[in-house]
Design goal:
209 residues, mainly alpha, Serine Threonine Protein Phosphatase 5, Tetratricopeptide repeat, 11 helices
Length: 209
Amino acid sequence: MSIKKFSFSAACALAVCLAISSGALAYTITKELQNEINVKLASVEAAPDEPHSHFDLAITYSYTNHVQEGWDELKIVHDLDKNYAKEALVMYSQLAKDNPNDWKLRFRLAFILYFNDKKAEAIEEMKRIVDMDPKGDPKRIWAYGYIGLIYGEIDNTDEGIRYIKKALKIDSNVAALHMLLASGYQKKGDNWGTFWEGVEALRLKALGY
């Protein structure tokens, strides 16, 4: 799967992974994360034609709640190098092997696996991230949402719904997750579930969640 040909559902996956700003566990940019963004931005400015710098920035955006910026950077990656996804798979596979406890590397690897149409492997990487984090850690919401969406894409809607509900148990005030759940119910022909989850998603979105 090329980054440029990212499907609508994949765009939703990105939104789920990124749009985790909510009330109960309101996600704020820490000084450490802001510094990380600044470093990645400096790398892009120093080498604007280097696809890796743009990808690294895009995934940093993905866990600092910068939805549109992350998406824009991913599109730039493909425009610069259409073979980047294949090349990056080799690199991040080795990096994750060498640094098994670095969840940020595993998050990048999960995206690269997805872009290479290795959806089952991407799910496993996200599950590893879940296992690494304490119960209730906001990062688990991102991983659960991403897992749920991929299960939906591979026609395992029930499992997808189960993981989305896991995310909502941590924090129910996430509009993107309710929209994902509505999509799952729609696939199952549950009109009431689709309606109510859609309404909840719109309500939360109006509140800025």
